[in-house]
Write a structure and sequence with these properties.
Two copies of one chain form a homodimer. Chain A is an alpha/beta fold. Chain A has two domains: about 170 residues, SPOUT methyltransferase, trefoil knot domain (Alpha/beta knot); about 60 residues.
Chain lengths: ~260, ~260
């Protein structure tokens, strides 16, 4: 589905309601909300719910920070209470950085998103807390389980948009939609053994003629070079290129009067 | 290893040289470099190499954007050429968003970091390009392989620090260091079957006395409620809490003259 340009329409390649909603509780900075929208768009999430944004909504600077993901901002919904923002959802995860003394299941982002995907067809959501203090315990208590991030203990503080990014990334991977934009397919098929052995033979003949090998080490050096060449995983084109280079060097050598 | 406070010392819990170096080619904005440092610190990377930072180094505003990850900035090294910046490394990945027509292997971040970890003990690095135009083909050509990101085709553009974050996240996971800061261990052990059956019995007795069940549906409703209670995965404490709530309701009911 491509963007039609109408304000208010979601414009993602993922059908509405399939990806989790992202719920921000009392977000404060325009920059964080804008970058959250961008992070969501990067991984195909589009449903943003804001609970009591601090200092009002919309915010000056949020569209710039969204860097093109303005469709997410345009479709964002604003709530005055968290229960209301979660009302239609049937599975909710809360992101926290710190232990909360609650007996809730704790997932890393990969496991949390797998759990979410196991509820395919349900309306799901992930809650993110205030920039400074995160979610309150009563807010975490509204969720089914917790997601936390495997960060370094020396520097555990992720910013809001980065937490959203990691959740979006893992959701997209869990959903099976994480295809790379391109792959490294060889433009030429792998070389056959016959082609390689011909190349090896030509190379060794040229090196013999150039007096490269110390006689007592010839066998070992030749085998080591074959090993190197095997590691190149040459394609048919690679072999032709290498053969061409060898021939050019040989012609040049012979032109200089070599045997 | 905790930070000693000396400028120039790395201060991470990961030994120097174990994590890949992060090489930024001609980075422009202080904010991006600072947020890159923060993203690195979040996942335990600490070696930042800058190649020809645009408009000089250090940059105004970079320390604020690093939000405390200033140890990464303090230890950053600056190079005037990319070959020089890569010189001591033995395995290098280049991040690109677009197909380059090169016959290089392309990894997603998870596979790329697994490949990197398979070279444990080697000095490795990941290259990131300019904010607007990324890496040039000749620069990509200095790497062993490519890493690209499984983003939405509708919105494929990740910002620099977010690309670094995803690579750092996947590296930490591949390295086996991705432990969560806390887990959801039950403070009380799971309830035994005997404790559950006692609870079921008490609940059903109370509901019988309260005239809850329509007689013809009693068996089905009772089984469905047992099913719900099984899904709670109750701990011993949960059972005690539930029993206490039932007793309180019963006392209150009887006090009102119920049977």
């Amino acid at each position: 589905m491509t963007r039609t340009g109408s304000r208010g329409e979601t414009a993602t390649e993922i059908p509405a309601g399939e990806a989790p909603a992202v719920i921000l509780v009392e977000p404060q900075l325009a920059e964080n909300i804008g970058m959250t929208a961008r992070a969501m768009a990067n991984f195909g999430l589009s449903e943003l719910r804001l609970v009591n944004p601090k200092n009002g909504w919309p915010k000056k600077g949020v569209r710039e920070a969204a860097s093109g993901a303005t469709h997410v901002l345009d479709c964002a919904t604003v709530y005055t209470s968290l229960p209301e923002a979660l009302g239609d959802l049937t599975y909710v995860l809360a992101t926290t950085a710190r232990e909360r003394g609650q007996m809730k299941r704790v997932f890393d982002p990969e496991a949390g998103m797998a759990e979410m995907l196991s509820r395919a067809g349900q309306r799901t959501g992930v809650m993110f807390g205030r920039e400074r203090v995160g979610l309150e315990n009563d807010e975490v208590s509204l969720a089914d389980a917790i997601v936390t991030f495997p960060v370094s203990p020396d520097f555990p503080s992720l910013n809001l948009a980065q937490a959203v990014l990691l959740v979006g990334y893992e959701w997209r991977r869990a959903s099976g939609r994480a295809r790379l934009p391109f792959s490294g397919e060889m433009l030429s098929p792998p070389a056959t053994r016959a082609a390689l052995l011909t190349l090896f033979g030509n190379l060794e003949t040229a090196l013999d003629a150039a007096g490269f090998y110390p006689p007592e080490k010839r066998a070992v050096i030749a085998r080591n070079m074959r090993d190197m060449l095997h590691r190149m995983a040459m394609t048919e084109q690679d072999v032709r290129t290498f053969q061409g280079a060898l021939r050019a060097l040989n012609r040049s050598r012979k032109a200089d009067g070599a045997p």
